[in-house]
Amino acid sequence: MGIKTREEYLERLKKMRKNVYIDGKLVDRTDARLKPGQNIIGVTYDCANDPNFEDICTATSHLTGEKINRFCHIHQSKEDLLIKQKMTRLLCHRTGGCIQRCMGIDAMNALSVVTYEMDQALGTDHYERFEKYLRYFQREDICANCAQTDVKGDRLKRPHEQEDPDLYLRIVESRDDGIIVRGAKVHNTVAPYADEIIAVPTRFMTENDSDYAVAFAVPADHEGVKLVVRPATQYKRVKLHAPIAELGDAESFTIFDDVFIPKERVFMNGKADPRQTPYAGFLALLFAHYHRHSYTGCKPAISEVLASAAALVAEYNGIENTKHVRSKLSHMIGTAELVYAAGESSAHHAERSASGTYIPDEILTNAGRRLAGEEIYNEYKILADLAGGLAATLPLEKDFFSEETGRLLNKYMKRNPKISSEDVHRCFRMIENALVSDLAGVMQVAGLHGGGSPQMETITMMARYDLEPLKDIAKYLAGIKKELGRYERPTVTPRKMLERFREMYGRLKE
Amino acid sequence: MGIKTREEYLERLKKMRKNVYIDGKLVDRTDARLKPGQNIIGVTYDCANDPNFEDICTATSHLTGEKINRFCHIHQSKEDLLIKQKMTRLLCHRTGGCIQRCMGIDAMNALSVVTYEMDQALGTDHYERFEKYLRYFQREDICANCAQTDVKGDRLKRPHEQEDPDLYLRIVESRDDGIIVRGAKVHNTVAPYADEIIAVPTRFMTENDSDYAVAFAVPADHEGVKLVVRPATQYKRVKLHAPIAELGDAESFTIFDDVFIPKERVFMNGKADPRQTPYAGFLALLFAHYHRHSYTGCKPAISEVLASAAALVAEYNGIENTKHVRSKLSHMIGTAELVYAAGESSAHHAERSASGTYIPDEILTNAGRRLAGEEIYNEYKILADLAGGLAATLPLEKDFFSEETGRLLNKYMKRNPKISSEDVHRCFRMIENALVSDLAGVMQVAGLHGGGSPQMETITMMARYDLEPLKDIAKYLAGIKKELGRYERPTVTPRKMLERFREMYGRLKE
Amino acid sequence: MGIKTREEYLERLKKMRKNVYIDGKLVDRTDARLKPGQNIIGVTYDCANDPNFEDICTATSHLTGEKINRFCHIHQSKEDLLIKQKMTRLLCHRTGGCIQRCMGIDAMNALSVVTYEMDQALGTDHYERFEKYLRYFQREDICANCAQTDVKGDRLKRPHEQEDPDLYLRIVESRDDGIIVRGAKVHNTVAPYADEIIAVPTRFMTENDSDYAVAFAVPADHEGVKLVVRPATQYKRVKLHAPIAELGDAESFTIFDDVFIPKERVFMNGKADPRQTPYAGFLALLFAHYHRHSYTGCKPAISEVLASAAALVAEYNGIENTKHVRSKLSHMIGTAELVYAAGESSAHHAERSASGTYIPDEILTNAGRRLAGEEIYNEYKILADLAGGLAATLPLEKDFFSEETGRLLNKYMKRNPKISSEDVHRCFRMIENALVSDLAGVMQVAGLHGGGSPQMETITMMARYDLEPLKDIAKYLAGIKKELGRYERPTVTPRKMLERFREMYGRLKE
Amino acid sequence: MGIKTREEYLERLKKMRKNVYIDGKLVDRTDARLKPGQNIIGVTYDCANDPNFEDICTATSHLTGEKINRFCHIHQSKEDLLIKQKMTRLLCHRTGGCIQRCMGIDAMNALSVVTYEMDQALGTDHYERFEKYLRYFQREDICANCAQTDVKGDRLKRPHEQEDPDLYLRIVESRDDGIIVRGAKVHNTVAPYADEIIAVPTRFMTENDSDYAVAFAVPADHEGVKLVVRPATQYKRVKLHAPIAELGDAESFTIFDDVFIPKERVFMNGKADPRQTPYAGFLALLFAHYHRHSYTGCKPAISEVLASAAALVAEYNGIENTKHVRSKLSHMIGTAELVYAAGESSAHHAERSASGTYIPDEILTNAGRRLAGEEIYNEYKILADLAGGLAATLPLEKDFFSEETGRLLNKYMKRNPKISSEDVHRCFRMIENALVSDLAGVMQVAGLHGGGSPQMETITMMARYDLEPLKDIAKYLAGIKKELGRYERPTVTPRKMLERFREMYGRLKE
Fold first, then answer.
1. Distance from first CA to last CA of chain C, Å, rounded?
2. What is the average pLDDT score of chain D?
3. Of all residues in chain B, what percent are helix, strand and coil, respectively (each to 5)?
4. What tens digit of pLDDT does each residue of D265-281 get?
5. What are residue D104's phi and psi, to 5 degrees?
6. pLDDT tens, D147-171?
7. How far lies C41's CA from each of B344, C84, C198, C246, D49, in Å?
8. Contacts of B472 in chain A (CB under 8 A)
9. Looking at residue B156, what is its pLDDT?
10. pLDDT tens per residue, range B457-509
11. Angle at C448 between CA C446 and CA C450, to 5 degrees
């Protein structure tokens, strides 16, 4: 059966080779600091097995016709994109933020498109390899990280221009049976408790960068892979248990220390076949694109989680019905709705690629993701505003349960007499977690940069948006141009993206 | 045939009784100051007759099966809502802004829902009357104004509490053959060159306000109707003709000086039948709602018109490719996309009312309209920013054609040598129209207030949005509530709206 | 006596040679379209003669010891800068916006510094000439325009690189008795009713641009000077007279069609003496700097004028005490206070130049002016928000006085019963002028661009602000640098500006 | 001598009674979690003893003529206010944020004004007592917390209306030799390592609240005082020592469990003498006012600290000179300058109270503090934006020094070849501390709420700002009022504040 349980997932982790480093120590995957992240991934298995969520958390494999976890599915229709977006929103409500596992589904969908296109153009056999890997992926209900961002060294230089050639992940040797890769990828959420790592390029590659045109999948505990991990922390709770305190994140700085990847897991190899080099940029873009579309599901949920806390504390503080409070809540809700709407419209305007995989509209997806990124710090501000200073000055948990101060603290926490001191305490404790923990900082940065910062979305939007037909409107109104046709706002199609990409590559060559 | 031409429309205007006042004079509808507005309405007839726009500017009447102008159509499906939104966007590109005629279609759709609901609940026959009127409306391709906003007097008092009872439009007498109404409606775009005026209430009405629960349609030149009109102006061009200079707006302060409305044109009468009073608010809301959904079509177009001018002048100024310019253009484009997406999602989540008319989602529509309203002044700022001061200091037209200064001005207007001085002149002349004319000011205010200001959308959103299920997310994460179901973001249905409205009415009664 | 009256000023205008062109016609300076601007300048004469304003609107000439109009004064102390700022704020309240005459005082102060520095470095005698001119300027209480902005042609090319060399104002011939100049200057507020035009460079000039390093003063009606003028318009009032309707603006596109400037009025001549070329940029910057400091006086006043209208209409609309209204008013007031404070602090940190003239702090002045520019469109938005749509749909004046509609309109304008319909009418008529007139558009653009757009202030600030000492703070906190001295935020001194400027020029030479 | 050393301060702390609770344990003041805060206070002693800072960090006591730490000084002039502001800015650069000790100086200055006014009006002897306490305060160079914010229970009820009367600090018994107080104060920065706690009221008190009109000073380890403390945490560093890692904050939830305050330390007692009750609000306001003025010193420093980190990481990331980066840095710098300018202007417009103490201008101070609060989250966003994701995903410290991963991490951290990996590491480690630590969250919340949130500043501003003279501007321009005098923007004077306050109290009585 293609749908595994949380327990089966955790069992797999236990069996993995130790290659996770935390603060100078090699640890295994049962380390307590990795538990909060695993709890989040666990939700993706639970819900696929929960009849209440079955309609959205499972899908039918187009390869086997079997029921699979939707996180392993290749989007076969606009509906698939819409349901994926909805799933992401709903699950993020339960995890209080990032569901983490979308990386895998986004990487797999991007690969399905690009390997197919490559094969069609170059006569290679990447798609076949990919499909085989996909069958395994769906059958085992694999949780995957996607390792995209290279460390990049000097930002003003291309990969091959760096003093140290390893500052972008590269193929150091291409052999008949596979490749040997060296380099490092950063910001690898989920990697320390994922089954697999899927590596994709981080940018366009010029002809001279063909060694860097590489994509592959590798088990996360593979020989030579080193995961140096930053777990985000919160105060540990002892008595006042709550989901928010059990959920969290760990990020990996992943080092590929001359790692051998067998041929059947290699999906792009510019070193052996430089004709594949142009596809590096296409894959980079396409993974980012799917990932940003996933953000149109998770970001609304994050706005809603923050708004829910803001609404609750406003109620507890007795200010729920004041104009300025409602106006602030409404702003957060409005942002959530607009970002979600952008993703939905993007799905409705999606087009089918040659491989059969659906690709959402780029302009809309980027407009939506950007708004979310621009608003994230403001949303934290609103929550802090409505919560008041206590979120930052709340005594620690045990003081609420100690003999000397417990009774007094509970006495002085009382607000609305109808709400128990414990509920007030719980509410502020949650907001403390959300606003003033190490994890809160990580969530803010992720809200800004995850999937690409607003700056990146602006660049992508403007690369896709053709200003000439837009200017025709002004030319017509000004009398510079006599006619105005039916303005068609550029809807991106996979084909157009590919063409533009090829054109760009052409320019780069010159 | 149900589709008329621009000429037929203009012919009808010529035949109307003189009841338009401009600056102290009674004028007929061929007054030059009304021409710019008529040119805009003309586009709605032209495009319905243009094969290039036929698929979006015409529809099939659900009553007769005949092809009609889409501006006379009652939305029978989500698709209808999507096409109406698209039509609005496209036509607004051609008119450089507000298409003006959406008022009619929005009022008719709202009436189709409310009259049907009233009949079902009260056993009245309003829907039959409405349908008869609709047949006429579709057959004659009627251009209608919707008169909603009352002058309102003291804002802190309800209609019946005003010192002068006429400060909201009211039924002064209800007779067997019709009603006599008195009062005034303001902000009546299109009224001075519309065929018909459709009056609807501006707010909820309490039991004591039943005289004010009134809706009807009346020919715009009906006995007793006085249209006191403010035409927006621009410098008249003499040689440098261009569409932007021919398009414009005139607003009516419409006085109903004891006007008799025959029974077949009365769609609500709280005076005769106080049971109808609660439906006043429902109709007020529903017209506003359809109108805001129309704004998700026109507002993106307005952003695009401003962005098109900004992109063109940036090109002419030679700064088109600088980062800050692209970032600003991208912001405008992003706003357009997000507002449009909100309208699209709203259509996709629309529900069918009992009458068969589709109603878009309220939360999404309001979130979209609000963003547009919040951004409008900023968009003017961006255009002014990229155009530079010349938009405000450009010599007048004839100086460019005079012997003494023409040659010199053209010499000094030259920028990029590839672009003619005339085109530069045309570009800045258009931007002058857009930024520093009386009309520009009207467009800014309309962009903020038209269909309801952001303040109103916030109130509407929060009236519809149920915070309790939202708070459950926080309660679950904080451990206050043990379970979290599948969060369903409140999708408004006509039925829910009606229920809430009735409930509200119930509360008002107490 | 050095203080003239409004009448004397107007008399002078009458005597001037006809060289003003409006819409293809040569007109004299009594043209009605120039009256609104003259009314504004008139205030600067009235107040200097008004005992109530004497302490701020007059000063003591450092040359003659006589009492002069402060608009002719060279700042001899920080106090002078503070009083000038205060004068600007107060007079702008009376003119409903831009006082227009600051251009002259700003140009004169800049010239006083730069001519002195030039003489000191180059042994020239510009300061003597300037002083002689200044004596005349003070004695006659001269109203001057400063013509700075060139038409600039292709923005990507320097003056000498343009296809047409005249696209920056240049010296076409330098003779013993003076120079002949050709070119055009734009955005010349006040020029059509100023006594004199003072021309200064618009940017840095490189060695190859020495023909463009030119500064001089010329009577506004001088042979060869052509003023092509765009007067901003509003509906003319017939009965409802009010100051706002009598005040306005006219902008000149000023063409220098081979104009001879006698030597005693030439303050910079790079053609004859290329050593003067570097001072072109210094003068450009310094005029802009004084002008921006003036904006820290006028912009707060403009915010206050808009806030005053917003507060009044909020009162008339009965919403004055709602939270959101007070919050919006408070935002406008806060902006005014912050911009004014920036100017005050800038004056307190001013330094004395070698000539004795005081120069305010650059960072603070630019930070203040920038905030004003960033906020201007938002302030119009707030006023529109609180006024409601009526500002854009108000019937024209005569309809309020006509027999057929006057009584009805006044009936329906009634709001708070304690406020007369006429006052309500006056209030909305004023807001119509402020929001939806041609002049309103000009004021918006001027609010953004006048004295340099926010973009320009950012560039200036960052050119002056040394990031290295700032980074030392981070280096200290990070442990990269062991010590942290007393951080001195770069206070600009005239000397530093000059040094930096020379250094910049050095780089340009390479 | 009145200036103590860091060592003397720390010695005093060691001798204090144990009454600090952290996470359920009673700890003494040498607890490691209190060290970071003490390191900050230490800077205030170091700098007063450092010849480089002597001119700003010391003052001359107006009581004794001796040199004292400026943190113990009562402002005798505008200059004193300006130097205090400067001191705050400079010291906050060294502490990477909040200097914490301003609470004491602000409370003392407020008390100096209010006790004097009370005595004058009521014939009491509070000022004498205060002066005696002040002598001790200056002689011993006391570090004091000011405990203002009550827990407040049900926000919709006044103190005496609460179900539990202790939810505001109150006098439970007034005796000849002193008072007994009960209640709790929150957000008490510095309290766990302060010598003294000064308690002041949190709001206006009505007649029925006279038991709550209380102010006093008490040693922080006094019998009955319980400090329940939340120390903010960061990852502890082992090798990469840096100031930022040694500095921090601890907040106290301070419980007064029936504490006896001897008479000579009581500065207000509404229970014994209800005539003092009105002064509770005056003291609440005045402490807040001085504290907000201090924020015009610290907030610019915080903006600069964040900007310094942003500038440094931009340099290390090689993007320092891109337009958008400079524009973002410029925005932060501009905010710092504007807030500082508001404080300076406020000092220049300060007025002398009857006691001789200077009080800065309220409108300006609030406008400045508000801008800082509105911008704080945005400033974190900019830093996160320029730093990139690595701030949130940086491996932990020991991994950089371990054998297995140290070399590899340093290899892959390399960016600009001229900058060592260690410096890059140091830079990102600092930014991690600043952005994604528990302490970072506390700093954000403090930046928003400390001294009062923007909401509070808006309320204060509008309570002081008289809209009527402002409206006169509009009335004059509209022709509603014939004359316009010299508009004087309301400059608050202590006397006016007091009068307004008394008037307010008068209203409350009714």
1. 52
2. 95
3. 55, 15, 30
4. 999 999 999 999 999 99
5. -65, -50
6. 999 999 999 899 999 999 999 999 9
7. 54, 16, 17, 12, 57
8. 308
9. 87
10. 999 999 889 899 999 999 999 999 999 988 887 776 777 777 777 776 666 55
11. 45
Size of interface B-D (CB pairs under 8 A): 8
Is C324 close to A322, i.e. CB distance below 8 A?
Answer: no
| Sign of CA pseudo-dihedral D360, D366, D367, D370 | positive
Instruction: Nearest chain B residue to D328 by CA: give it.
Output: B324
pLDDT band with cut points at 50, 70 and 90 for residue D507: low
Q: What is the pTM of this model?
A: 0.96
Residues of C in contact with A327 (CB under 8 A): 324
Collect all residues of chain B within an 8 Å Cβ-Cβ radius of residue C186.
389-390, 393
pLDDT tens figures, C196-243: 999 999 999 999 999 999 999 999 999 999 999 999 988 889 999 999
Q: Which chain C residues touch A324 with a CB distance below 8 Å? A: 323-324, 327
D neighbours by CB contacts (3+ pairs under 8 Å):
A, B, C
Q: What is the DSSP letter of D4?
A: -
Q: Give the whole-angstrom CA distance, residue C120 versus residue C282.
A: 15
Residues in chain C: 510
pLDDT(B63) > 80: yes
B398 min Cα distance to partner chain C (Å): 5
Q: Is D199 helix (H, G, I), strand (E, B) or coil?
A: strand
Chain C, nearest residue to B230 by Cα: C395
Average pLDDT over residues B302-314: 97
Q: Answer yes or no: are the C-beta atoms of A405 and D226 closer than 8 Å.
A: yes
The count of C-alpha atoms lying within 13 angstroms of the C-alpha of D464, restricted to the half-sphere facing its C-beta, is 27
Residues C375-379, mean pLDDT to the nearest whole number: 98
Q: Please name the residue that has the structure tokens 């004193």.
A: D80
What does the angle CA D70 – CA D75 – CA D79 come to, to the nearest 5 degrees? 90
Q: What DSSP letter does each residue of C350-388 carry, written as one string?
A: -EE-TTS-EE--HHHHHHHHHHHHHHHHHHHHHHHHHH-
pLDDT band per the 50, 70, 90 thresholds, residue D233: confident
With a cut of 70, list the residues of chain A below it in pLDDT. Answer: 1, 492, 504-510
Q: Write the DSSP string, C459-489.
A: HHHHHH--HHHHHHHHHHHHTSSS-------
Token pair, residue C493, equals 């001194």
Q: How far, in Å, are A150, A502, D355 from residue A280 at the CA level?
A: 13, 11, 75
pLDDT of residue C510: 45
User: Would the pLDDT of D100 be above 80?
Assistant: yes
Report the interhelical angle of D454-464 vs C323-348 (nearest 10°).
80
Interchain CB distance below 8 Å, C338 and D334: no
Helices of type H across B2-145: 6-14, 35-48, 54-57, 78-95, 102-122, 126-140
Q: Quote the crossing angle between the two packed helices B362-387 and C438-449, to the nearest 10°.
A: 70
CB pairs under 8 A between C and D: 204
* DSSP-derived secondary structure letter, B228: E
Specify the amino acid at residue A201: P
* Residue owning tokens 């990031």: C467
Residues on chain B touching D324 (C-beta within 8 angstroms): 323-324, 327
What is the per-residue pLDDT across D313-346, written as a single tens digit (0 to 9) for each?
Answer: 999 999 999 999 999 999 999 999 999 999 999 9
Tell me which residue of C113, C118, C66 sits closest to C350, measured CA to CA: C113
Beta bridge partner(s), residue A218: A197
Place of tokens 């003052």: D59
Q: Chain B interface, mutation test: which of D319, D321, D323, most B Cβ atoms within 10 Å?
A: D323
Residue D327 to residue C461, Cβ atoms within 8 A? no
Q: Which residues share a beta bridge with D251? A: D189, D230
